[in-house]
Fold these 2 entries.
Entry 1:
Amino acid sequence: MSRFQKAMYRRPDGRAIVYYAWERPLPPPPADGLAMEPGRMELRWNAMLGEWVLVATHRQGRTFLPPDAHCPLCPTIRPDVPTDIPAADFEVAVFENRFPSFRPDAPLEGSSGAGVVAPAAGASEVVVYSPNHEAGLAELPEIWTRRLVEVWADRYEELGSRDEVRYVFIFENRGKEVGVTLTHPHGQVYAFPFVPPRVVQERAAFRAYADDNSGRCLLCDTAALAAKDGQRVVVESDAFVAYVPFAARWPYETHIVAREHRRSLLALTPAERDDLARVYRELLRAYDALWGVPMPYIMTMHQAATDGSESLADHLHIEFTPPYRARDRLKYLAGCETGAGTFINDTLPEETAAELRAARWRA
Ligand SMILES: [Zn+2]
Ligand SMILES: [Zn+2]
Ligand SMILES: [Zn+2]
């Protein structure tokens, strides 16, 4: 695949917008448009749990399920109806969120002395997959997913090179069931000023596994075992395997895992990137075919931290957690999950994998 062209512009309110282009011309610099919403943002230390909480009050004012004609992620066609993307056409666009959780110049607004605070320094980016309002990655030709892999790798590299950024977190919330307020297909990237606790927890598990298994990587072994056993596999390729984890927390949870030990997207060869795009899209198609409706999900990508530290847990993988336990039944995080931190899975991973495999052949 050809290398993209890229243009980074600053808007009047200081936020960056980055366009990626392969075939179409790069859009011109933005004139004006929608501006960032004011509000209080800071990190507060939750001493009971030993973790940071992001306080971002302006997020309460986020655009909530606007009519399609007022979608802020569509190209700007009429100057009197500005969107977040001040261009008439684009291929992939990335911009700093108007309602950020982290931002590069995050202020420290002071504290009452009641607890520990820190500036929410970092970045919150929105990645708009295409100008098409209706079609997601599963419906668009595979080249769009392939391009997205390049964009993800570029965001990881660019944000990860900043001094204040210790972890680049790529994710997507899809569907109103998981709180999405805009239906136009898009994902997000958060550049964290700390390594988030979920990753710290994974790192500890990898360390413990290595200690018990002569230094071996937990996920190298887990992916190989899942592929060999086959019962929980949904999609496979030379370089990646997508499977329902043995002890999945969520009924239709799947993980896409690099078969070889790869620390991040940047470590993938071009052929491996092709493979990732294919497996990713096929998995999405299986999800959508399962019940014949677009499957809501949370997608999260775990890769190496960008703070210079190395961990055995730096093994690229992508986790999908759809919120349903059956076609019309949502899985809620109730007492046992929320208060005790222990998940109850109402399904058998071997069976949900078989359902997803069957759906894949119908897709
Ligand atoms: Zn749109
Ligand atoms: Zn590994
Ligand atoms: Zn993970």
Entry 2:
Amino acid sequence: MRVIFRCQFCDAVPEAATQLNLEHSLREFAFGQYLDALPGRWLVWHGHGLLGPVRYACAEHRGDLTAFLRENYGTIAPHPWKRPPYPTSVRTAGTDRALRLKAQGGQGFF
Ligand SMILES: [Zn+2]
């Protein structure tokens, strides 16, 4: 079954490559996390729980999505205030951070 993604501010639908990355993002386990979906530069919000459902915005409406989330959830959690750049995957972000810590000789994940 094909999942239909739609920008919450207009009727835009992602092109094929971005669609694929959005489908991958459904498998992420994130709470209160922005994710970039490339190459179309869509923005995904993984809210969950108090932070609401998963939401999508096209490249043109990324700013509208962050503004919307900050207005609606900005007082209950710091997550909506996170600044870009956003990761494309939570797993990748964690791995990158661990590698960076390791490179700095710090106490990391390993
Ligand atoms: Zn849009």
